[in-house]
Amino acid sequence: MRNSMLKRMTCIIALSSLMAACATKDAVTPTPKPVDAEDLQTSLAQQRDTILTGIYLGSASQQASLDALNDQLASLQNQVKTLKAASHAQAVKPATKESQPTMNKKCPSPLGDKFILGAIERVYVDEVKASFNTRIDTGAESSSLDSRNIVLFERDGNSWVRFDVFVDGPDKPAKTFEAKVVRFVRIKQDADDGADRRPVILAHLKIGEYEAQTELNLVNRSHLDYPLLLGRKFMKDIAVVDVGKTFIHGKKDPNNNISNK
């Protein structure tokens, strides 16, 4: 009987120990804190604002870089246009059109940008290093120089001309010159005659204190009084003619050379 009671007491003690352990375990385990919906929404909004701010700052930086590149491109395009315009202004005009004469004025003119020419003037032609008594003819369209033995040839793929000019007068031997042909022109002298095809060269002239550049066609002018003729295309925009006067700029050789009269 004593043994039976001992067993019962042992069972009671064991059961009590087990219950105490379970109670202790339940007391140690923390109870989960419930999630507050308002706090969660506030936190998500803050994260969203942080992300959007980063995206905005990055986009603004990229836009600033694009604006700077566009400004540089516009500046380069303007520089290219300026260079093209300058290049076009200095380019040689097509051979199908006669280039307009240019003038370097060294003394004042009573007509502003234009100077006065008489019906006859002493003109120095740099290409043949000689001066000529020259007919200033408003009735002729183009200008021409008395040339003989005109021979066309090719040099470096371009048309050139070899010709003789009596630079020391008709009683002295002629001298031979060569020049690049800028174009050809057809001149019709009479209604019954065919057009005369002439080579045209670029010449630099000096009349008194004035210097000008124009085109001269080469032709035999032995039947005419003056070896050099300047027509309307030379005078356009740079000179006017006083047909009642001659040698307004003097009879002296503009380049101090002795040549034909």
Structural write-up:
The protein is an alpha+beta fold and 261 residues long. It is 33% helix and 31% strand. It is built from three helices and 13 strands. The chain has helices at residues 2-28, 37-90, 232-235; strands spanning 102-105, 115-118, 120-125, 130-136, 144-146, 148-155, 158-165, 175-180, 183-187, 196-207, 210-219, 228-230, 239-242. The protein has a six-stranded mixed β-barrel. Strands 6-7-8 form a three-stranded antiparallel sheet, with no helix packed on it. The longest helix has 54 residues, at 37-90. It starts with a helix and ends in a 19-residue tail after the last strand. The relative contact order is 0.17.
Ranges with pLDDT <50 over ≥5 residues?
Answer: 91-97
Strand order, biggest sheet? 3-4-12-5-11-10
C-alpha-based Rg, rounded? 51 Å
The biggest sheet amounts to: 6 strands, mixed, barrel
Structural class: alpha+beta
Oligomer state of the chains in this structure: single chain
Helicity, as a percent range: 25-40%
User: Helices and strands, in N-to-C order?
Assistant: HHEEEEEEEEEEEEHE
Q: Span from first to last CA?
A: 173 Å
Tell me, briefly, the overall form: rod-shaped
**What is the count of helical runs?**
3
Strand content: 25-35%
Number of strands: 13
Mean pLDDT: 78
Keywords:
13 strands, 261 residues, alpha+beta, three-stranded antiparallel β-sheet, six-stranded mixed beta barrel, single chain, rod-shaped
